[in-house]
Amino acid sequence: MQTQVQRASEILSQITVPTVPEELLLLKEELNRKYPNTVTIANLISHNPELLVNFLTLVNTNITSEKNEIKDAKAAVNLLGLDEIYNIFLSSSITSVLAQSDLEKSILMHGAKAGLASAELSYWVYDISRSEAYMAALMQNIGAVYLSRQFQEEYEKIFNAQLSNPVSAYIREVELLEQATVLLAE
Length: 186
Fold this sequence. Notes:
By secondary structure, the protein is mostly helical. It is 73% helix and 0% strand. The protein is built from twelve helices and no strands. It has helices at 2-13, 22-31, 38-47, 49-59, 73-80, 82-98, 102-121, 130-138, 142-150, 152-164, 166-177, 181-185. Helix 4 (49-59) packs across helix 6, helix 6 packs parallel to helix 8 (130-138) and helix 9 runs antiparallel to helix 10 (152-164). The two termini are 13 Å apart. The model has no long low-confidence stretch (mean pLDDT 86).
């Protein structure tokens, strides 16, 4: 196990991580104020058109319990609450910034689908919001994204095999790559 942790550390040291969008940092700063300004929050979310589209797309899924379509950031802030807004904006930002290839998009899409299911199931879990459940499931494959960057050709087959045969594919992953996705996610 120690060898695998060292190997994970080596892999991570060779990978560049994209920077977090400035809007996300400014949003967190505004939310940490004693009295956050909802207009400022809506403006920050609306500042980057690509992030806004991804945010509104996610807001209008089952990640929220809102029945009517939300068409702008101001309506989202007013209807969903500040904690939910941050979790959803963070999730949509991560998805748009992190994926650099078709394989990475596929990996994150798998996490997003699991996130939508988790959001539905969060109703039965005490003290977990829909957006928190979504984010946890979205991030389940983050190690796979980084392994796909390191082992581009080999990893696509491994990831696809893990979707239908998780145990045997995990063993194959360790044999081929001398590494397991789960150690990179830690």
